[in-house]
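Figure 2 data, in text form.
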Amino acid sequence: MQAKETLFADLVQGRAQQFQVPLYQRTYSWTEKQLAQLWSDILDQVDLLETGEKASAHFLGSVVLAPSPQNEATFPRWLVVDGQQRLTTISLALAAIRDHLAQSRPDEAERIDEEYLINKRKNENDRFRLLPTQADRPHYAAHIRGTHEGQAAGDNVSVAYRFFRRKLVEAEDPADPQDVLRIEQAITSRLTLVAVTAEAGDNVHRIFESLNNTGLKLSQADLLRNYLFMRLPTRGELVYETYWLPLQASLSNKELEQLMWLQLVLDGDDRVRRQDLYAAQQHRFEQTEVREADIEAYVKELHRRSMHFRRVVRPDEEGDPAVRAHLRRLDAWEAAATYPALMLLLDRRERGETDSAETARALSYIESFLVRRTVCRVPPNNLNRIFQSVPAQLPLDVPVADGLRQLLSASNRYWPDDDELREKFRTAPFYLYGRPEQRKLVLQRLEESYDHPEPVDFAAAKLTIEHVLPQSAGDDWLQVLAEDATDGETPQDVHARLQHTLGNLTLTAQNSELSNHPFDRKQDLLHSSHLEMNRRIAATDRWGAREIGARADELAERALALWPSPLRGVGRAERSRDWQLVHQVLAALPHGTWTSYGDLAAYIGSGAQAVGNHLAQTAGVVQAYRVLNAEGRIADGFRWAGPQPEGEDVRARLNADGIHFTQTGAADPAQRLTSSDLALLLADPDQEQSSEGAVAAGRDGAEPEEETRAERFFRQLAADDTPETVGAVRTLLARWEELGGWVGYGAGQVTTSAFLMLGATGLPGAGIWPLVLYPGGGRGGSAEVVFQYLATREPFTDRPLRTELLGRVNGLDGVDIPEGKLDLRPNFRLALLEKDGNRDALAETLTWFRDRWIGRDMS
């Protein structure tokens, strides 16, 4: 048996050969969680390639190979005893790169195919460098041959391929571009493997057993602590009692690990990753002879910096009011990416290189950078890299705050300027982007800017976000909007364009009372509000496009004063992010779904005509043909941008992609994705997308001197639904509790929610939920099936399990959720539960769900 370190390129390149996954191996099972981690590792290596830094490659894992019984001298074949998940994933990533380049650089696409994926002169199964198990083989073969277009994407192989196609589209971001060929280079020559090659008589299964029987994994902090105190033979006890014990008592193990990583970053290592903390710190110590004094100095410095870290994660420990206010807002924003910069500022202040006023000014630039990017819909995917580079790149010849502003103003950081902020206040669907708490914080700061003589206690007020023009507009509202329609717009188009913009959003504690009422009814409630922004809305005579635009302009001017602008002349990136967002969301469209020009325009804050023009004039936009007009028809004059696929007609392509057409020739409206659905496609699955970002509370959830959360839920449900529906919901929840589940009610005062929970009571993060029930807010209550959330929770990371759940839910009479919405959060009306058969069928489905979850560790 031989073991050696190798690269993917060295393993598969050269003469014709094949790596066969034995039939007894499990099928390909990586989910988006593992894919996302690998993608992050790949981009880290791309960064190193682009900067020319000589750093160690990323270790991907081991591959155990044994000669195949079908081995031939002229055509070596190997059994993949261990490592098939890694090899399959890398092969699919390279297939995605090949297809991404096929139109623009066909020569490179052909090279990738022949070097890594196929044996050019072989036929049938011998053509594939990697041959998966029989269950995975048809899907894998279709992607390697390029014949997968139109196939349903329900298997994990197809999910992985689509993941990489989507990420490659994102990598073309003009403000933070990643060269696709650099990505290929990182995959093939910067990801290392240990290849264990067995002889014919070796017990490869024993090797596999020993490689995978690793026991309980120590954290990076545990490993580093052990390393430190092993090298303190004479002073270990003193150092432990003086510095380490107080340090360990003041921070959790996770926080301690984060602090250790931050110390490396603050000392200038702006490329180190959290998961490489132990190896990186060990390497730094061992570059020179390690003395006890060096180890002691490190622990002492860690203890000193822990005081700064506590202020970052517990802002109330900060003494200066202005600095404390900024730290509180950044903590509420969950701005962990900014920690290197925050720690640097607090360190400089302690050293006397700046004061609290200068520190607060610097913090205002960080806050502005985050807020402006969120309002202008700049993806947060490069925030970690931006702020991790601050300690090493901060200019030393200017005051700290000025240096930070200069650094963040550089073009590759993308800090939106005043003109763009004004435009996005008017046009961007702010409500569909960022975390719910971030949206609320922006509106809270805008309200505070009015300097009301009796300011609101936001911590106690329990305010929620209200759409003044409601999300579901009745005839009264549509008549007002018809007066403001331009350029052939319908009232529905105006509604879609404006409903989620900042000019139409406010804060209120009376969301359920405001609901979908006409404006004159809302005026009365808003006039009595303690919030100045609501009184100003109530002072207007009507509420339509003109008023929403005027309010957006007023709020934008306040925003400019609250959140400072970047410096001019440092260098700006060309603004094409909105179109990049279009490309990304179209690449993410699930099989069996379509969207409209209006939905896409509302999602990015543009116009339907502009979206149509862009798609018609831009070659290579993945799945652009799946954008139809509002009636679900192919637009008049539709043409392929770039070379038309040979013999391809767009209707045939849509049929192949699982789009069904009605007898009138329109695409099935049930398969349409609205602007809200599109927002979910690129959202973090762990960010709850309910209107209030409600989080399941404990079983009781009672609040002193108020109705309980359960009472609030049923009061709001009864306001919209019949007594029969309310009774059916009570029966369903009772049956869920009989199954061992519990009901967690939403924390918001708005249209609240009820989570059907499994797991520790009061600890939703430790459990799982299949459904969330919502009162209707004027439209009738609904049950949301949280497929997108379940895709990150075992055992439902397995797509076939989610597909089975979809089939069971569709067994209810009146429910027909398309398979294309298996990556989203579709819903059905609670009124359907009035039927005894539907209640029984849903209870059986919930029993099945519980049994799968309980048995997750036994499979």
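Caption note: Confidence is low (pLDDT under 50) at residues 212-216, 688-705.
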